[in-house]
Design brief:
By secondary structure, this protein is an all-beta fold. The chain contains no helices and 23 strands. It has one domain: Hexapeptide repeat proteins (UDP N-Acetylglucosamine Acyltransferase, domain 1). Strand 22 and strand 23 form a beta hairpin.
Length: 167
């Protein structure tokens, strides 16, 4: 079993791997799947259709809405926001669930603090997203992307060091 703070809300039927820690005031919805050896920071929301691999670190104040899939060893900085609908509406007669777009963050990728990830994109393996970026397009494996909107600026090694070529 994991280690959950007493203020965390873990809905029934959420699946949480062993040795995963969940901090204060986080909410894990029914149906969410979180791997083993993860760290879920304070005030994190994990929707019921979210999949999180093993060894992920999700910092404080992150929202992971339905359709987000994090592969193993992903790092999500504080305050990162994921969307899941391209054109949301408040009207009850418009059901946005039919418009959900899946978002994939591949193995070992890092997303810096305060980034916004617009639904429907894939962030490649070991890619690095700069703090405060707004990602609206796919980022290739080992890609370094930042800005608003985020643009591919170069490439990084598996350890995150800037390189002049694709690894």
């Amino acid at each position: 079993m994991g280690d959950y703070h007493g203020t965390a809300v873990i809905d029934e039927e959420a699946v949480i791997g062993e040795n995963t820690k969940i901090w204060h005031f986080s909410h894990i919805m029914s149906g969410a799947q979180i791997g083993k050896n993860c760290m879920i920071g304070q005030g994190v929301f994990v929707g019921g259709m979210v999949r999180i691999g093993d060894g992920c670190r999700i910092q404080n104040g992150v929202n992971l809405y339905d359709g987000v899939q994090l592969f193993d060893d992903v790092f999500i900085g504080p305050g990162v926001q994921f969307t899941n609908v391209l054109r949301p509406r408040a009207e009850k007669k418009v059901n946005p669930k039919y418009d959900y777009k899946a978002t994939f963050v591949k193995k070992g990728a890092t997303i810096g603090a305060g980034a916004v990830i617009v639904c429907g994109v894939t962030i490649g393996e070991y890619a690095l997203i700069g703090a405060g970026s707004v990602v609206t397009k796919d980022v290739p494996d080992y890609g370094e992307s930042y800005g608003n909107p985020a643009k591919l600026q170069g490439f990084v090694s598996r350890s995150g060091q800037v390189t002049d070529h694709l690894c």
